[in-house]
Automatic annotation (TrEMBL):
Organism encoding this protein: Kineococcus gynurae
Protein's recorded name: NUDIX domain-containing protein
UniProt domain Nudix hydrolase: residue ranges: 48-182
SUPFAM superfamilies the UniProt entry points to: Nudix (SSF55811)
Disulfide bond recorded as keyword: no
UniProt entry tagged with the keyword Cytoplasm: no
A Pfam family of this chain: NUDIX
Key words of the record: Hydrolase
């Protein structure tokens, strides 16, 4: 997940992007309560609370998209992840940010999705390197859809049975990003594909 993590060498000048700083005391149901706007680099350096997105991509056949982060990422370099996502920038709503990150990281644009992104949950996450309100979604593509990794952020990406990912998450030694680990722990039965929603 891109959650504010630029590459260590500052690729594309992402650190200069403006990011809303949130009030972590506000009720989660209130959404993103903005109290300030700062450059992304300052948000990263101060571990300031912000908003970020997470999209669990399903293929309708029980598999989810899993990827390995590049070793140049400044947050959780080289670790595995099962969601695509990133920071919500100034002037951007979470739905738009989620769609943008999915297209950028995995090459899955709106025209490929079988349905619009489906909101699942919101929750705060904080550790020593990142602090954000997660807006989590799930989305579906047709089985066999090709995924295209963004070279600067994603080293490799593949489809893996969700139940297998769940089994691997039981191993604390698997190099998996801790924020998505926590997110999935709070997402009941995420490994069971409920099927493509009927409201297409």
């Amino acid at each position: 997940m891109g959650r504010g993590g630029t590459t260590a060498d500052g690729t594309a000048g992402a650190g200069a992007e403006l990011v809303p700083v949130l009030d972590p005391r506000a009720p989660v149901r209130a959404g993103a309560v903005v109290v300030d706007v700062q450059p992304r680099a300052r948000v990263r350096a101060g571990n300031l609370p912000h908003a970020a997105t997470a999209v669990l991509l399903r293929d309708g056949a029980g598999r989810v998209a899993v990827h390995r982060r590049t070793t140049t990422k400044d947050v959780y370099p080289g670790a595995h992840d099962a969601v695509a996502g990133g920071v919500v920038c100034a002037g951007e709503d979470p739905d738009a940010a989620a769609a943008r990150e999915l297209a950028e990281e995995l090459g899955v644009g709106a025209g490929v999705l079988l349905t619009p992104l489906r909101p699942v949950l919101r929750r705060w996450y904080r550790d020593d390197v990142t602090h954000y309100l997660a807006f989590a979604y799930e989305a579906w593509v047709a089985p066999g859809t090709e995924l295209r990794a963004q070279p600067s952020e994603v080293a490799e990406v593949w489809w893996e049975p969700a139940v297998r990912v769940r089994e691997r998450l039981a191993d604390p030694g698997w190099a998996f990003v801790p924020d998505t680990r926590a997110l999935l722990a709070a997402w009941p039965d995420w490994w069971n594909d409920p099927g493509v929603p009927d409201d297409r």
